[in-house]
Amino acid sequence: QVQLVQSVAEMKKPGASVKVSCKASGYTFIGYGISWMRQAPGQGLEWVGWISAYNGNTNYAQRFQGRVTLTTEISTSTAYMELRSLRSDDTAVYYCARDGPNFEFDYWGHGTLVTVSS
Amino acid sequence: QSVLTQPPSVSGAPGQTITISCTGSNSNIGTGSDVHWYQQLPGTAPKLLIYASRYHPSGVPDRFSGSKSGTSASLAITGLRAEDEADYYCQSYDNSGHYVFGTGTKVTVL
Known about the structure:
The complex is a heterodimer. Chain A has no helices and eleven strands. By secondary structure, chain A is mainly beta. In chain A, strand 4 (33-39) and strand 5 form a beta hairpin. Chain B is mainly β. In chain B, a hairpin with a 2-residue loop joins strand 5 (64-69) and strand 6 (72-77). The A-B interface holds A 35, 37, 44-47, 50, 59, 61-63, 95, 100, 102-111 and B 1-2, 33-34, 36, 38, 45-48, 51-52, 57, 89, 91-93, 97-104.
């Protein structure tokens, strides 16, 4: 069965960087893209960006351009999201999800809470 | 920032039918992009409920149905149950190649 297992919660200070991992299993990793979303406390879902696990092509939401980098490690079927210059309003649960064939997110990770506080 | 507009809340009694709307624009749903729906139970990750506007992933009951017309879409839940109490989000794709989400709707079962 398809599973996406994310790294544990992180606590960071403003200005720092965070790197969240998402290890995939149960399917051919390079056959699908991975998207990242976030959800601030009590708020809705926000798309952060997408990466092709096949060739590493990326596409980022405009508001995160220049501050986020998505990468993959094919040998371990793992996707990574690095977010830099953290601010308090980056405090959120970050989710990875597999991109389905109709531009839907068919499988989701359990989420990683990133808390930014001085 | 959400680009698709949903009502903040919808409620209904057990057994009733409720509908959640998702209003987009000619930059996203109106381009012909599919609409997908997710259910998020409290404290859990979202789960795909409807894909390509009207199809069910395996295991999702057919009490949930979706439709799309023009720049809008809707999700209907028939035979409402207590376990349907959750947040629901629509999602589509825009003409700049970006994914967009709805504002989210909290469903309460009275």
